[in-house]
Amino acid sequence: MRAAAFSDLIGPDGVEIIEQDDPEPGAGEAVVDVRACSINRHDLWILQNDSAMVSEGATPFVSGLDVAGVVSETGDGAGVSEGDRVLLCPNQTCGTCEYCREGPENLCQSFMLFHGGLAEQAAVDAHRLIPLPDEVGFAEAAALPTSYLTAFHMLRKAEAGAGDLLFVPGAAGGVGVALVQLTDVMGARTIGTSTSAEKLSRLESLGCDHTVQSADVDEIESAVWEIGQVDATLNHLAGEYTKLGLKVLKRGGKQVICGRTAGPKCEFDAAPFFLGHNEVIGSTMGTQPELATLVDLVADGGFEPVVSRTYSLEETGRAFADMEDREAFGKLVVEP
Questions:
Q1: 26: closest CA among 147, 125, 166, 168?
Q2: What integer is the mean pLDDT of 43-49?
Q3: Tell me: the pLDDT tens digits for 57-94?
């Protein structure tokens, strides 16, 4: 089979199409014919040699977390059948630690993520497969596991509810778009930012109530204060946006952080933080039942995942270049 491998961790030019042996399923596993696999900032960091997860010695490395496709072969005890349409939950957990026992599963002390979806086939843990209704396309399904699952779990950790005002800096990326859509579904209001007027217009069409065209934290702070104090900041950027996210919170408000696109370190003033009874909460991915809920929401017409563009396997390097250029709105999906 063919795979789009990271042969050199130098960015998009390091992607190479290679031939690999067809996978064979072990006990409890299934081989999935990959029909779609979205890419994420997580993959790009690996490709840019900016991740502790993969070193140069591990190349060629096949990434790709978000797999949607059709079961082609099963091992003993797989619990799925050939021909099943499925979506993979990329969570990998030990299943035995206190966090796995008590939940939620993404607290597992050995939490990892599946890699290997940027290929024609993938051997996966069959118990991590979610049935995919006919109403949900493969590309749309592949958009869900990382961005939309992360957004859904962030909203739960923020304890956001109908009528709340939520601040989403950098709202035009994969997680940002997902947050805007899911917030609209739940009846809350959003303030989204971007430097692109075109992207802000698209955010408004998805239900974003207030938009701010700027990347300057001082300008954004002033604009948000004119709209009102926010109940929660949902922050996938980190960096300087962390201090901003706290400054616009109401008393007792929460900031949930899931990424580091704007920088790996967060600094903020201590006194306003504790005097305002604010909370800063870390969040990574979500749970398999939450992903199943998202699949049901899409099947029922609750929302439609935003797919910016699809690419062939040979165009995987181009997909990462487009992500690196930050021109995309929504998810980029490879269709092997």
A1: 125
A2: 93
A3: 788 999 999 999 999 999 999 999 999 999 999 999 99
What is the model's pTM?
0.94
The CATH class of 2-143+306-334 is: alpha beta
Question: Which 3 state secondary structure label does DSSP give 185?
Answer: helix
Helix (H) or strand (E) holding 312: none
Phi-psi group of 238: left, alpha or beta (phi > 0 → left; psi -120 to 50 → alpha; rest → beta): left
Q: Where in the chain is the domain with CATH 3.90.180.10?
A: 2-143+306-334
**Chain segment 227-281, per-residue pLDDT in tens:** 999 999 999 999 999 999 999 999 999 999 998 887 788 888 888 888 889 999 9
Crossing angle between the packed helical segments 174-186 and 149-157, to the nearest 10 degrees = 60
Query: Which pLDDT tens digit goes with each residue over 296-323?
Result: 999 999 999 999 999 999 999 999 999 9
Question: Where in the chain are all domains bearing CATH 3.40.50.720?
Answer: 147-282
Q: Any idea which residue has 């130098």 for tokens?
A: 10
Give ∠ CA 274-276-277 in degrees, rounded to 5. Answer: 65
Class assignment of domain 147-282?
alpha beta
Cβ contacts of 137 within 8 Å, gap of 6 or more:
none
Cβ–Cβ under 8 Å, residues 47 and 14: yes
Structure token pair of residue 31: 């081989």
pLDDT band at 173 (very low <50, low <70, confident <90, very high): confident
In angstroms, rounded to a whole number, what is the distance separating the alpha carbons of residues 20 and 31? 14
